[in-house]
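Wed. Picked up where I left off yesterday with Transgelin. The coffee machine is broken again, so keeping this brief.
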Amino acid sequence: MSRFSQVMCAGKREPEKEQEAQRWIEAVIGEKFPADLPYELALRNGIILCKLMNRLQPGIIPKVNVSGGDYKFMDNISQFQKACIKYGVPDVDLFQTTDLWDQKNIALVTQTIFALGRTTYKHPEWRGPYLGPKPAEENRREFSEDVLRAGESVIGLQAGTNKMASQSGQNFGASRKIILGK
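Structure written out below (C-alpha cells, as returned):
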C-alpha cells in the first residue's frame, strides 16, 4: 500500500485488524496486553513493540527503556522503527512516531505490525506464529531465443480484432468542389 493511500485512510481504524495484531503480538512475546489499557495506549510507550522485535530477532534492540518518562518511551518507538528496517520491513510501511505517541494514526501503526508479520515469512529461522498472508515470491522464467522469436510474430487480440475492417464509407471533411467556367 502506498504512503498516499495510507495517509488517505488515516483514522479509519479496523477493530478486527487491531485484535488480530494484538493476539499475534501476545502469542509472540508470551504476555497479554494490560487489561486496563486500550490497544493504542498499551503500545504507546514502545515497550511491547521492543519486546516483539527482540523475540523475532534476539538482541536487535539492545536497551529497552522501561522507565524514564516520555523522551525515553519515544526512544523505544524510534528503536522499534529502526529495528523493523533492519529486519526487512520496507520503510514505506512504517508509521511515524507521532502516529502512535500522539495517537494520530493508529490504523497506520496496525499496518506496520501487519507488514512486520508479513516480513517474518522471509526469515526461515522464525518458527513462531505468523501474521497476515505469505508474500508472493518471484517466479522468474527463462525462455530460449526460439521461443522469444516465435512470440514476436503473434498478434495479440487483447484489443480486439481487425478482420473485415476497411475504410469504405468514411469521408472526412467536405468533398472537393471544382468550379469550371469562371
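Quick read: The helical segments are 3-8, 15-29, 39-44, 47-56, 70-87, 97-101, 106-119, 145-152.
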